[in-house]
Amino acid sequence: MTPWLLPLLLLLLAGPPAVRPAPPTCYSRMLGLSREITGDFQSLQATELSEPCVRYLPRLYLDIHNYCVLAKLRDFVASPQCWQVAQVDVLKDKVRKLYTIINSFCRRDLVFLSDDCSALEYPVPATTVLPDRHG
Question: Contact at 8 Å (CB) between 30 and 69?
Answer without folding.
Answer: no
